[in-house]
Design brief:
This protein is an alpha/beta fold and 133 residues long. It contains 6 helices and 5 strands; from the N terminus they run βαβααβαβαβα. It has helices at residues 15-25, 38-45, 53-61, 78-84, 102-106, 122-132, and strands at residues 3-8, 30-36, 68-72, 89-93, 110-114. The structure holds [cytidine-5'-phosphate] glycerylphosphoric acid ester (C2G). [cytidine-5'-phosphate] glycerylphosphoric acid ester (C2G) binds next to strand 1, helix 1 and strand 4.
């Protein structure tokens, strides 16, 4: 069983997120999504998600590619997560390219950066809605 992990806020879930989750799952057989808590978003990413953690978790758990959703509390938990969940492949969108290469040095996991889906983002959705009502 090849186990994959990825991280994110996944607010206002959109097809860019789905494309990422689909390709992440295709890297193995089991996908763990580590979902940023509301506190982590606010304190460390200066993001206030539209949907709270429980709702974002509920949405992710409804996606066929997702096998497990667990909380992301801080930036530092990735190495222990990879070990805890016996991860073989660590996946992030390529806006993070290079930022998590240390995972491959400190664990047995391979690090894979997948291309982002162009022209869609949570912040763009929010901007469009606030401008167009
Ligand atoms: N993503 C994508 N295409 C988009 C938008 C997002 O492929 N158009 C990917 C991002 O690259 C990321 C994942 O979807 O891999 C989740 O995106 P966010 O919710 O914006 O996650 P982020 O804020 O980057 O949080 O510790 C890592 C952080 O939790 C990552």
């Amino acid at each position: 069983m090849k186990r994959v992990i990825t991280y994110g806020t996944f607010d206002l879930l959109h097809y860019g997120h789905i494309n990422l989750l689909k390709r992440a799952k295709a890297q193995g057989d089991y996908l763990v999504v580590v979902l940023s808590t509301d506190e982590f978003n606010w304190e460390s990413k200066q993001k206030k998600s539209y949907f709270d953690y429980e709702k974002r978790k509920q949405l992710l758990e409804a996606i066929r590619y997702v096998d497990l959703v667990v909380p992301e509390h801080n930036w530092e938990q990735k190495v222990s997560d990879v070990k805890l969940y016996q991860i073989d492949v660590f996946v992030m969108g390529d806006d993070w390219t290079g930022k998590f290469d240390f995972i491959a040095e400190e664990t047995e996991a391979e690090v894979v950066y997948l291309s982002r889906t162009p022209e869609v983002s949570t912040s763009q959705i929010k901007d469009d809605l606030s401008m167009n009502g």
